[in-house]
């Protein structure tokens, strides 16, 4: 393990952006004396950044550790990482500083990722547009009206980054399409009450009312659905490689044209994946992968990682090419490669509110890859 890897894990642990696996790896490395000098240097840098004039003495650090241990013994509900206290006691004061810093200056909980919430991405990322049935384009980000006329006698209500339709069955429906730009997200309440969230660089095509035997929409890019229950009228999501049929459920569809595979992940209920004559059913917690060769692979999947985008986060566990395509969609940049880039997988999590520069810098600290940014182009090299 290189020193740069230790620095990378330290920064992610301190900023509380480390994945569960990274937290465990960091804790393991802390037990190794090889990193004591590096840790002390990192803590010195951290303290200097906080404009603290004097470092804590060994005696003060030891006393503080004792106090932390006493507090932990009283309140066992706090999951401060005290299971490793034994080796911390015999280590350098820099290790004690880490305990003090994490438990007194930062939130004390280290836990598995929380279940996905219904929180929609911040209103600052509402870069979206609506194309009406007559071809008119409505800028949803800058339109200040609280209602939008979508066809004669029919309006949709608009609040923040959400557009809500009513099922006006007395009108002949027209087709509307909502597009999100790079760096934008948007949510739509469809005419039947189904809720849809669009990820960046995506589109949702749907009728202004559902009048037939099916409720049918088309997705390009990525969208999460909470489908209104209606057993008599199945809900169908069309993609470029097939369709997903449901009655009432919660699921995510990822179908970007530039990606090799399409993914449907089920959170609740039941869905059927159709690809030609090939049909597969999903259970909650499963994901269907549809390849370019039209094969359907069913596998278990971490729901929290799949739904991270909806809560304003990136959760990566893939090679750099896949990661860079996702970053390019969000930050609206072009990516080019020089030399033979590593094929290793990177497991990491970041806030979408972080700058692209900061994210690339943290990936670069793994020591296996380098980035340079010129205008709107990111160059990736070994």
UniProtKB/TrEMBL annotation:
Keywords: Membrane, Transmembrane, Transmembrane helix. Residues 177-271 form the FecR protein domain. The keyword Nucleotidyltransferase does not apply. The keyword Transmembrane helix applies. It comes from Chitinophaga silvatica. This is FecR family protein. InterPro entries: FecR, FecR_C, Ferrdict_sens_TM. Residues 317-380 form the Protein FecR C-terminal domain. The chain crosses the membrane at residues 85-103.
